[in-house]
Specification:
ten-stranded antiparallel beta sheet
Length: about 475
Amino acid sequence: MRRLLVALLLLTPVAAGQVCRLSVAGLNRNRRVSGDISAECPGNPLHSAPFGNWGVTSNYGAAGDSHQFDGWCHDTRVCDNNGRCSNVCRDGWYEWNSCTTDPAYRAPNCDLFNDGECASQRSTTGVNVHGTVTVDVPVRCPIDTDGDGVADAGGCADLNVYTHTRNFLTLYELDPFTGNDLVQTMYFPPTPVRLNCTVAGCEAAGSEWVAPESYDSPSTVAKVFAEMATVVNSGQFVPGGACPLLLGVAHTVSAASLTGPVAPDSLASAFGAKLAGVTASAAAGPWPATLGDIRLTIVDSAGRRSAAGLLYVSPAQINYHVPAGVAPGEAAITVESSRGARALGALQVDPVAPALFSATGDGRGRPAALVVSALPGGGQDIRLASEPISLAAPAILVLFGTGIRGRGEAVNVRLAGLPAEVLYAGAQHEFAGLDQINVRIPPSLAGRGEVELAVTVDGRRANALSLLIR
């Protein structure tokens, strides 16, 4: 009977709504230009012949000034066929000679052409991305085939290959004033990408490089050449509301304040149910990517997939380190074990998300901080800031938090409404994701009793805490 039930589950048709969301990019390399190009020539005062920036319209995006199809000329002194020399390509782009039909810029010329015995051009940069798109592929709902309560089939695991069958690159010389000039279109064979996917998502993978198989506008002769490949940056299962609640929900907040967004290279906490089958803690960093058979993956707003470092895992809570390279914006997380997917969730990533750790661990009350006071004759007295603070000697408050290191210049601390001098604000340097703020406590606060601690970073206020000053 059990085998029959499993077989029926595996045959379950795709329900409406749920998809595996792929971030897919097109790449190009080995770019060459050997035919006559007259996309930008003298005669118009707005043109900067002979060199121009080229863009690509493809099945992965539209042409734009984003280094889609870099050439070879960059901050180079060149001379035309009439002996006129100048420093060209001064705008930071690797550009192409886009006016080879003009007598002044024709081959052979070893200043204007860098390949083929000074008669053709070859890019001097490596791989370029000519566009990125999001593709939703319908998949089945997650399935538990062995009855352990963990999804191990369906979702993104239904995918083992992604293929786009009609690949093309249409090249333009870009000009914001006079319009884009068409150079030529290249067509490429399919670029299948073999995927390694779990129920919750897919790892990054790429296709083989392929060469053009035909041309258009014109179809002959071939003026340009490039190789193309397809990359799946990441995959993420999106339930769409049609699936049974087999996967749990993981809600992420700052690990310090237990509220709000998180920042790149910060500490976060995810809360839910059945997130892990065991409880485990990591020793001092670097934080491991797998802890207690659990791993947590982030897919950011740019479609990049990265593993989070894990500090603590339990059925109800996971504390983790948000990688430094995570792009700001809305991101998704997946919680998985070696047996299958456990939970999905969303988080908001901001460039700066200041939060302070508290002594009680709930982001309220006294700070989890130190007070460092000078002793007569030298030396220091170090006490916990959760205790009453004496200002008999000059004292420094050392606050610990997260989401602060991406700051600009604006770090403001107020105690009882009075400005306090900030001596340092940034990474703590011992534990990944932990930040530190050193503040000089104003001597005038002696005897004030309970005072509010207010910290603002780049206009964003951290959770409010308080101190008791004798």
